[in-house]
Amino acid sequence: xxxxxxxxxxxxVERSELAVPATSTHFFERAxxxxxxxxxxxxxxxxxxxxKPEAREIAIEALNxxxxxxxxxxxxxxxxxxxxxxxxxxxxxGRCPRLDLVMVPKVGTAFDxxxxxxxxxxxxxxFPRAKPLGIEILIETTLGLSNVEDIVQASERLxxxxxxxxxxxxDLRTCGEVIGASDPRYAVLTDPDERxxxxxxxxxxxxxxxxxxxxxxxxxxxxxIDGPYANxxxxxxxxxxxxxxxxxxxxxxxxIHPSQLDIANEVFSPTAREVSWAREIIAKIQSASxxxxxxxxxxxxxxxxxxxxxxxxxxDRDQAIAAAGREGARDVT
Length: 333
What we know:
By secondary structure, the protein is of the alpha/beta class.
């Protein structure tokens, strides 16, 4: 490893993050009883401008009144360039002891995060809390993505980065009809086959953004969370989107509808088979090490200390889910 080792951040299980409009009070109790690991009340995109101050008060009342159990709670404030953002932070951070994190949309530079950090630090001096508030942010602009490596280093409060695919696609000027869906235009053609036919292979137009965010987060100990898949009537598409993110190192995904929660929780949990494999590998490597060997072959595959790290990561993930009071490893045949 490098001599430079990032400071550890607060670890939370965040496989599924349920979005709840702050003005949709009829959803609050159901959200609290849902399978979501993480819930945020939204003051930004889900609230009309005329109702912003009202929505803030509704969110504060709900955070203080409802029994949210062991769920992690956040509020998505309005953009820092709006007339509501600073009051969102002041009122919610000062009056909601149950709150865990402040979610900041459309972060463009490291200064945006440092500004929120400084404001929270002052508020916590005025209104002491049992635990400092965390920050999670949305990278949903081209400016934000171009600065993401600096942004993730801006504050020790920063815990997670979410890819805001909707606004990002608008800023990139490549938005489609369904947020989070693939675009059939982003494809390559094969050469003609023996009959002259050519076949289109779809590519993932979001790969660059996802991979860059995941790499920046892993380099500095943050959680990478994938954004929404708007077509909640398409569970197969949602699962494919979640699995793509998991393959790139993301820890969880937004859910805009409760029907997406179980899928996200499943995709971002180790399978029973993975846990069994990890335990077997750990035992075999420990046995080999006791005999003086650091590596061995198994079914034609090299097993060494690098594989041990992978196995231990699976066990750690499964144990973290169990410790958080969530369900453990999933069964996948």
